[in-house]
Amino acid sequence: MSSDSKGPWKPSDRVAGLLFVDFDGMAADPDDVISDGLDGGYRDRTEALREVLRDPHEDPAGRFLACVALTRWGDKSGYDAVVRAAGDPESVPWRGASYDRLHGQDDTFGVLADAVGDSVDMVEERGTAADRLRAVEALLSIADRVQFDRHIGSLLRRDDVAACLPALQAAVTRGVTRLTEQPPSYDLGLQLALMVSAAHRVDPAWAQGMARDLMAAQPGERALRELGEGMEDA
After folding, report:
1. What is the DSSP-derived secondary structure letter of residue 186?
2. Which of 30, 47, 183, 203 is most buried by its number of CB atoms within 10 A?
3. Stated pTM of the model
4. What are the φ and ψ backbone dihedral angles of 99, each rounded to 5 degrees?
């Protein structure tokens, strides 16, 4: 979690006990707790984190962390929360709970993308493969509206792209239009280039045509470089 200009964020006692204390009772970083929980420890904290996620009185940043943990652990409630958030990203209460250190911009959806993408190793154990795929599709569907930067790559496994291709294509098409009309403050061009390059492995004809449209929209140096490398390697 990154802090904002108002100062460091402090979790509630409940969230601190669930995500800032490891499974040996020692103070720890939430990323480490979430990672360690993959070995089975998640079972002891899942229900309490579901309660945090559902609690409208809990601090939004705490609910965001609960969502990240549950999602990374392949839990259906985490995936459901991601889908709901993607349904109306502008009004999600935890927007701004995490900022990328390089550009100082909200990266909450990028963090969720990593959690959804990486959780592929848990879905067989949890029986939530279909729920994960819904979350992948929901996030790809808003890739023209919110910042993901390179985190979008976590959603671009070949099988995920094949299953969610219509949603990806629609988002890219809208994104190219947005670039030509009113580019956002973040690097939308890079996100679109990564998506086009990934789609090239599944639908090369569409990807080649869209790559030309994207290049004509002047997507920026990072995007052009990614297209050059990604389309060539695909």
Report:
1. S
2. 30
3. 0.94
4. -125, 140
